[in-house]
Automatic annotation (TrEMBL), chain A:
It comes from Faunimonas pinastri. Keywords: 4Fe-4S, Iron, Iron-sulfur, Metal-binding, Molybdenum, Oxidoreductase. This is Formate dehydrogenase (Quinone-dependent) catalytic subunit. It is found in: Cell envelope. Residues 47-110 form the 4Fe-4S Mo/W bis-MGD-type domain.
TrEMBL record, chain B:
Its cofactor is [4Fe-4S] cluster. Signal peptide: none annotated. The keyword Signal applies. It comes from Faunimonas pinastri. This is Formate dehydrogenase (Quinone-dependent) catalytic subunit. Residues 682-798 form the Molybdopterin dinucleotide-binding domain. GO terms for biological process: anaerobic respiration. InterPro entries: Asp_de-COase-like_dom_sf, Formate-DH-alph_fdnG, MoPterin_dinucl-bd_dom, Mopterin_OxRdtase.
Length: 199, 811
């Protein structure tokens, strides 16, 4: 966790009237603390500020997300505002028409909430539990792999190839997710493995 | 990008060709306006449409889509003819002086070794003459008739301004103006940058489009310098990262290769990866390949990867084809050879070409799993939406499992931007409903499958059973754990190879960076190029010091850039043969007589003498390649080929259709259209209010740009009786769509080889899910063929017809 102070988190600390010891550690004396303590808190001071990166294009503009509640403390957190990060060297606080509307992407009416299964030939999704969905996936994968895995080619060379199942990876997941995905997909022998960079 | 977004402010000339940064990358484009406002930089836009980038350009030239190589070869010819070459750079930092084998040649639009039945070349003659000393033979005077420079001169000689006009439709005077402005940047103190995106990649000659500009940039001495470079703007927030981590059919992480089945064992695999220098004293950094590979295998399989089993080489899948890329796997799906498919944050029903074929192929699957924060057209491909998705639901026997994932605002980890900055982010909100992190989902799939293999046994379970998965909570590995694994650590104590009494890294500690990797199994690293991202100093990707000494734009203490926190690739080339900056005002690094230092991490060994060691340290030559040897499938020099669907025949060689070595499947050839039936040249693009097929789910963006449309010129509208705002039908050999017509001055007919070519512009943001009005995308129309080297589909140049029509059904 990066503990550098940004403009907003300064306001939060000062505006919330936190004890002088905190301000002292920031280099303020008691006098400044006394003044700060009676200033009405900014609205954003009651929110949690989080640094993040815009999810759209690869300029990777810095953004600040404000939430009611702190998800890192295990609380339920509702995102109430997103703006450009003025400290970020690339975008210096600015956002484009896509980035400026990020909050409404997060809260889009078509965000998915539950695992769903559409059975063959039917015309609707039905809600499933995670256990149902994941056990089903593991079973489908295992059965197909056992049936179609090519351990060796006709020359007897180990090829460890599974061609009847493919995996398309995302373009906005983190590098860490990408790496975890890589491990799972490749260890199974899947060769039809691409991401959005292919197109 | 070779450079960073913040470096664009250092440019003298910004060339946007094959992209539209003002609309697709608005906040990055601000660095272009910065360069214009404070440096007096000029902006050139070359594009079939008069885009918003063009609207602020100093000079705009129209071009017919799919003809960029002819244009840029014409510029190279102009530079050669007019002595606009950065000679010291070209002679010393490129392979201009290298002598090419006698067998190599180019005739009738084809290079030596073409086999029409295989649609491939025997590339053995595309190489240097190797001397008795084992090194490539060079002639530094550039007099030898077989040196690369003279072969290049000959190769581009046909691309005269008149020929460029015939092929590209760019009026000769406009072409010459652009060529003149670019050529001025051959001065060591004038730097040009190239900003491109999918307007160059999505062609059957996409790789060569980019290569041609790279060659021009080398001749002008603009690679490795501030305000220069080849800058791929890239499309998605972590498309660079997913490529770096190797999530492509033919790759291992860090641009290592998945073995082919011809590489029957590890020694065979390594036998072609020695990367011996081709000139004396050169770095040829890929000589360390084995260290990277073995360390990756150790990250994957830990103790199960041993010297005795060749570090579990046999656990890796081995390819029998160049790649199971997306076009190939959908072709196989259509043939009924694929049973299951996963789409993680990916929407192929709108993203892959020839949508009819995509939907038909998905309908042949037994099962489809989608992982996404949003409802997608792919997870609903079986649902009938009238004209917008006209399928017979009951006949589709595919089981679809739709898994809800978190989005960026709810998860932790790093993303790599186009400038290779790896930036950490933190979660801010709780996921909706039961949505879960991708790490958890992948962990669950893995653990459940491993359990089945433990209980039941099955087909070669070893790589699954032995996969290293020792996370504190195996149910969901954390971003921190994975980042450290990517960075790499010492498995056993590492001592200095020259002095075993000196301990370099204690067992279990994180490595400083990839320079500490070993090939004996004593180190692990999930992706070598990222090593250094999270070491014993902490999470370097989370660094937030935005100071920039002397305002160079480097921001060295802001996050971490791969490799080794280097911000400008090839930055050794910013200095001359004595190590002095070409332009002292734009110094990056400098040689002080004993070492390199400056504003960036040197892209060369710190003590490598400037006269001895070339700046392109990844190449066996130590220099860059104007002549690509056999490394490109479609030629060591770029040649103009028309798109597979073209409004005019190939002017140079009318018999050649498309790129002669691009892979085509027989069923798709039947679906290529010709100009007599489909006379108009269509292209696809983004709008600034939307991002792909995501923002149509956002009511704000849906309100800003609610409805699908196509753009045509006033001339074509008049010819076809189409009115502004009226409904039109646009169709290709593969599909038909309906749209509102935007009749605009932004698109004008181009005169190509005496024929007026009308352009039809088709934006790509609509489908049948989300908050925007239902609509179509260009992929309903585009051909199922990809780039000859990397199989990126040809979205930017195809043929359609158009007519007025009535509104679609099913709104």
């Amino acid at each position: 966790m990066n503990m550098e102070l940004s403009r907003r988190s300064f306001l939060k600390v000062a505006g919330a009237g936190v004890a002088g010891t905190t301000l002292g550690s920031m280099g303020f004396g008691d006098a400044e603390a006394a003044v700060a303590a009676h200033v009405r808190p900014f609205k954003l001071a009651t929110t949690t500020e989080t640094r993040n990166t815009c999810t759209y294009c690869s300029v990777a503009c810095g953004i600040l997300i404000y939430s009611k509640g702190d998800v890192r403390k295990g609380e339920t957190a509702v995102i109430t505002h997103i703006e450009g990060d003025a400290d970020h060297p690339t975008n210096r606080g600015t956002l484009c028409p896509k980035g400026a509307a990020l909050k409404d992407f997060v809260h889009a009416p078509t965000r998915l909430k539950y695992p769903m299964i559409r059975k063959a030939g039917t015309d609707k999704f039905e809600r499933a539990s995670w256990d149902q969905a994941l056990d089903r996936i593991a079973r489908l994968m295992k059965d197909d792999r056992d049936a179609n895995f090519i351990a060796k080619n006709e020359k007897g060379v180990p090829v460890n190839r599974w061609t009847t199942v493919g995996f398309l990876a995302a373009s906005a997941t983190s590098n860490e997710t990408a790496y975890a995905t890589y491990k799972v997909v490749r260890s199974a022998g899947i060769v039809a493995f691409d991401n959005q960079a292919r197109v | 990008m070779t450079n960073a977004w913040t470096d664009i402010k250092n440019s003298d000339l910004v060339v946007v060709m094959g992209g539209n940064a003002a609309e697709a990358h608005p906040c990055g484009f601000k660095w272009v306006t910065e360069a214009k406002a404070h440096r007096g930089a000029k902006l050139i836009v070359v594009d079939p449409r008069y885009t918003r980038t063009a609207s602020v350009a100093d000079y705009y030239a129209p071009i017919r889509q799919g003809t960029d190589i002819a244009f840029l070869n014409g510029v190279i010819k102009y530079c050669i003819d007019n002595d606009k070459v950065q000679w010291e750079y070209t002679k010393n930092f490129t392979n201009a002086a290298y002598i090419v084998k006698d067998g190599f040649g180019y005739k009738d639009g084809l290079f030596t070794g073409y086999d029409e039945t295989k649609r491939d070349y025997d590339r053995s003659s595309w190489d240097y003459v190797i001397g008795d000393d084992g090194f490539a033979v060079v002639d530094m005077t550039l007099q030898h008739p077989r040196c690369v420079w003279n072969l290049l001169k000959e190769h581009v000689s046909i691309y005269t301004p008149e020929m460029v006009e015939r092929i590209c439709g760019t009026p000769k005077d406009k072409f010459l103006k652009v060529a003149e402005m670019m050529a001025e940047c051959s001065s060591p103190t004038k730097n040009m940058t190239s900003m491109y995106a999918l307007g160059w990649t999505q062609h059957s000659s996409g790789s060569q489009n980019i290569r041609t500009m790279a060659m021009l940039q080398l001749i002008l001495g603009n690679i490795g310098v501030r305000g220069g470079g080849m800058n791929a703007l890239r499309g998605h927030s972590n498309i660079q990262g997913l490529t770096d981590i190797g999530l492509l059919s033919h790759l291992l992480p860090g641009y290592l290769n998945i073995p082919t089945e011809k590489e029957v064992d590890f020694p065979t695999y390594m036998s072609t990866r020695g990367f011996k220098p081709l000139r004396p004293g050169q770095t040829s950094y890929w000589q360390n390949y084995k260290k990277f590979f073995v360390s990756f295998q150790k990250a994957m399989w830990g103790a199960a990867a041993t010297p005795e089993n060749n570090f579990a080489y046999d656990y890796l899948p081995k390819l029998d084809v160049p790649a199971y890329d997306v076009l190939r796997i959908f072709e196989m799906m259509d043939e009924g050879k694929v049973n299951g498919y996963f789409c993680q944050g990916f929407n192929p029903v709108l993203a892959f070409p020839n949508r009819g074929k995509i939907t038909r192929s998905l309908s042949k699957l037994k099962w489809l799993v989608t992982m996404d924060p949003l409802e997608t057209e792919t997870s609903h491909f079986w649902e009938n939406h009238g004209d917008y998705n006209d399928v017979d639901t009951a006949s589709i026997q595919t089981e679809v499992i739709q898994l809800p994932t978190t989005c960026f605002a709810e998860e932790e980890g790093s993303l790599t931007n186009s400038g290779r900055w790896i930036q950490w982010h933190w979660p801010a909100g709780s996921p909706p409903g039961e949505a879960q992190h991708d790490n958890w989902i992948m962990g669950q799939i893995f653990l459940r499958m491993r359990e089945l293999y433990r209980k039941e046994g099955g087909a070669f379970p070893d790589p699954i059973l032995n996969l290293s998965w020792d996370y504190a909570n195996p149910q969901e590995p954390t971003a921190e754990e994975l980042a450290k694994e990517i960075n790499g650590r010492a498995i056993t104590q590492l001592t200095d190879p020259t002095d075993p009494t000196k301990v370099q890294v204690e067992a279990g500690k994180l490595l400083v960076n990839f320079s500490q990797l070993r090939d004996d199994g004593s180190t692990s690293s999930g992706c070598w190029i990222y090593s250094g991202c999270w070491n014993e100093h902490g999470n370097n990707m989370a660094r937030r010091d935005n100071h920039d000494p002397d305002d160079t734009g480097a921001y060295l203490n802001w996050t971490f850039a791969w490799p080794l926190n280097r911000r400008t690739l090839y930055n050794r080339a910013s200095a001359d043969m004595n190590g002095k900056p070409w332009d002292p005002a734009r110094k990056i690094i400098e040689w002080d007589g004993s070492k390199w230092s400056g504003y960036d991490v040197p892209d060369i060994a710190p003590t490598a003498k400037p006269q001895d060691v070339g700046p392109f340290i990844m190449n066996q030559e130590g220099v860059s390649r104007l002549f690509a040897r056999g490394l490109m499938r479609d030629g060591p020099f770029p040649a103009h080929y028309e798109p597979f669907e073209t409004p005019i025949p190939n002017v140079l060689n009318p018999k050649i259709r498309g790129n002669p070595v691009a892979r085509v499947f027989q069923n798709d050839v039947k679906q290529f259209g010709t100009a007599d039936e489909f006379p108009y040249a269509a292209t696809s693009y983004r709008l600034t209010e939307h991002f792909h097929y995501w923002t149509k789910h956002n009511p704000v963006n849906a309100a800003l740009q609610p409805e699908f449309f196509v753009e045509i010129s006033e001339e074509l509208a008049k010819e076809k009786g189409i009115e502004l705002g009226g409904w039109v039908r646009v169709w290709s050999k593969r599909g038909s769509i309906k749209a509102k017509a935007v009749v605009t001055k932004r698109i004008r007919p181009l005169m190509c080889d005496g024929k007026a070519v009308h352009v039809v512009g088709i934006p790509l943001h609509w489908g049948f899910m989300g908050a925007a009005k239902k609509g179509f995308g260009p992929n309903s129309l585009t051909p199922f063929v990809g780039d000859a080297n990397i199989e990126t589909p040809e979205y930017k140049a195809f043929l359609v017809n158009i007519e007025p029509t009535t509104a679609p059904v099913g709104v």
